[in-house]
Amino acid sequence: MNCIQKISQDIYWVGGNDRRLERFENMFPIPNGVCYNSYLIVDEKTALIDTVDVSISALFFDNITHVLNGRNLDYLIINHMEPDHCGNIEEIVKRYPSVRIVGNKKTFQFLEQFYDYDCKNNYLEINEGDKLSLGEHQLKFYYAPMVHWPEVMFTYEEKEKILFSADAFGTFGALSGNIFSDETDFNTVFLEEARRYYANIVGKYGGQVQSVLKKLSPFEIKMICPLHGPVWRKNLPFILEKYDYWSKYKPEKNGVVLVYASMYGNTENVMNVIASKLAFKGITDMRIYDVSKTHPSYIISDLWKYSHFIVGSPTYNMGLYYGMESLLRELEALQFQNRKVSIVGNYTWSCKSTAIMQEMLSKMKNIEIIGKPFELKSTMKREQEEALENLVDEFYQSII
Ligand code: FEO
């Protein structure tokens, strides 16, 4: 049974949800599932904008067969060639052999890398700014490289001023019937997952996101249709502003993420003491995470949100505890920047963790280390209380 939604007079949502998948990209936990959006424009010509993941192919073909109602599919526009959106291209070509596949040079390069079927005769290669007329609806194509892959492009529908934005403005989380963000309690249901999606999937490419936001700024946009998550038709400045903050690596809030590795609870104990002291001073927004317990994507998401963080880790095998090392390496890879941090190191016979964390943090842009790193030898001792108090004072002063 088809399950479609009309998003405007001639444009239909023909996507679907996957609530069974454990991990997006086989990496990121998605406890609330994920949705794959695809849009079908029915005009003098018909155009499908992106396909979906193979996990929901059956529903997807029910949907487009229903909307086309016996008509041919004239165009398939590929804004993004990642397989979560491209799993059905071959079947589309089999069902609609005359379909023109609209993409740029890189789109077709990736299509041939991922898939073996030959559909070169179907290619319609476009360049930046090219137009495609469907009748009343005119589509214009704009490159959006590295948001999130190099071949990505955005499609702008001029009549209704709709931006089909590929992965941009998307979120983890399946839709619960309501397709528009204004029909959901977005802040409660989706915002955390939108940030986690952005930080982990697109976070590395802040500069490229900024370029695309600048490119879009002269456009009048009445609706944003991403490939994941709800469609935006109201309060567009809200999500555009979030993207502006996130892509500038600008904290949304003053607050602290305390993230630690701890084998026997001693580093954890110091982090709890620090958090209590900060709480006593009046800091309200704090999150504490154990790198061995919480998937790094959640920690990274909160690091994107807040202005300050504290890292704590024991030395392990004369190096840094694996979970902390991999978190800091990932942050560096994501170009994480513009935050203030303090360091807590722990060791029993040879302190390496403090120096390694310092070195890894120093490779990140505009990460200011506050205070003297606090080191404990296995456990914190009473004579260290003053040193810890001094660090907490300095850290607190950097927040207020
Ligand atoms: Fe949803 Fe970059 O794919």
UniProtKB/TrEMBL annotation:
InterPro entries: Flavodoxin/NO_synth, Flavoprotein-like_sf, Metallo-B-lactamas, ODP_dom, RibonucZ/Hydroxyglut_hydro, Rubredoxin-O_OxRdtase
UniProt keywords, alphabetically: Hydrolase
PROSITE patterns for the chain: FLAVODOXIN_LIKE
Flavodoxin-like domain segment(s): 256-400
Superkingdom, natural source: Bacteria
GO MF: electron transfer activity; FMN binding; hydrolase activity; metal ion binding; oxidoreductase activity, acting on NAD(P)H
Family of the protein in this entry: In the N-terminal section; belongs to the zinc metallo-hydrolase group 3 family.
Name of the protein in its database record: MBL fold metallo-hydrolase
Originating organism: Alkalibaculum sporogenes
